[in-house]
Amino acid sequence: MSSLTDDLQTIQSQSLQEVERIISLEELETLRLKFLGRKDGLLTKVLQALPTLSPAERKDVGRQANEVKKALETALENRRQAIEDAQIAQSLAKESIDLTLPGTPVLRGKLHPLTQVLEEIVSVFTRLGFNLAEGPEVETDDNNFTALNHPPDHPARDAHDTFYLKDLKDESGLPLLLRTHTSPVQIRYMRTHQPPLYIVAPGRVFRHEAVDATHSFVFHQVEGLAVDKDISMADLKGMLTLFAQHLFGPGAEIRFRPSYFPFVEPGIEVDISCTLCGGKGCRVCKQSGWLEMLGAGLVNPNVFRAVGYDPRKVTGYAFGIGVERVAMFKYGVDDMRLFFDNDIRFLQQF
Ligand code: DAH
């Protein structure tokens, strides 16, 4: 009998000691089974032996056994709690975030500088009431040249270094071409609309030219056309002044120089005062204080005739802005090729 009491004491001291050394929940469960397992737990066995004892002994040993069981259960529970707390503390330490660290930068996409400038140019005019017009990049000879007062064999055609699509012909058997300017959109629009009309037509144009710092075989223009009654050079100058001041600041000035384009008469070239040097003269404006920016003029009566308008009833102005030129002057970029290389380090600056 006293041997059971001894057993219980051994079980108690042994189990309580072992509990303290446990560091994982799995080991803890193994230990629980070792002493309290239903079938052959050491303590369970003592309890199973109780019915063989005399009533008096059974009472004493039974009480002692229950105390050992309670003590062990409490120890197991405390240990389980301690292990879980340690695990939580460990994963918190591992997952902790230093909120003062700089974040991972997220690169945001943005519009290409040429698109930005093109949209800015267009918006100056659309906000003044101009409509947006568009035309295809593959054009007919008539839209690109003849209706714009470049008859066949007219020497002005030579200035355009045209890409012809030799296997594709229009209705009159002439080869289609890649438009050399956005001016054909004037023809398309006037043939489908009646005056008064005010439009801007942005787009890509193509010329068979060698690529260098100021030339490319593909570039962008924004065409403008206003047709109404009594339109004069003064209207054109007012509109282009607004344009220049919007893009280059309120101090920008413009000047007109006589020039020649078959579809306007008179034709002019428009300079904008150099915004980089304020007109004093610098590398970009080649010391002249002025930047050549666009071509313009009053619509030639022959163009009105070609689209079926009566030149005695309507007048108009037209202009063609080179988007790359404007972007180069606006940002002080001295090589047009940079816009087409698409080097992300260049593009990110805009
Ligand atoms: N189409 C001309 C070119 O690409 C630019 C131009 C000049 C457009 C005068 C116009 C204009 O509308 O009036 O060289």
Helix-strand makeup class: alpha+beta
How far do the termini sit from each other? 94 Å
User: What hetero molecules are in the model?
Assistant: 3,4-dihydroxyphenylalanine
Which term fits the overall shape? rod-shaped
> What would CATH call the homologous superfamily of the largest domain?
Bira Bifunctional Protein, Domain 2
Q: Which stretches are poorly predicted, pLDDT < 50 over at least 5 residues?
A: none
Number of domains: 2
CATH class of the largest domain: Alpha Beta
Number of beta strands: 10
What fraction of the residues are assigned to beta strands by DSSP?
Answer: 15-25%
Helix content: 40-55%
Order of helices and strands: HHHHHEEHEEHEEHEEEHEHHH
Structure description:
The protein has helices spanning 2-21, 25-36, 42-49, 55-95, 113-126, 141-144, 184-192, 233-248, 301-306, 323-331, 338-341, 344-347; strands at 131-132, 138-139, 164-169, 175-178, 197-206, 218-228, 254-259, 264-273, 290-299, 315-322. With 350 residues, it is α+β, with helices and mostly antiparallel strands. It has 2 domains: 2-94, no CATH class; 113-347, Bira Bifunctional Protein, Domain 2 (BirA Bifunctional Protein, domain 2, 2-Layer Sandwich). The strands form 2 sheets. The protein has a 7-stranded mixed beta sheet with strand order 1-5-6-10-9-8-7, with helices on both faces. It has a 3-stranded antiparallel beta sheet with strand order 2-4-3. Strand 3 (164-169) and strand 4 form a beta hairpin. The mean pLDDT is 92. Residues 181, 183, 223, 261, 264, 295-297, 318-320 line the site of 3,4-dihydroxyphenylalanine (DAH).
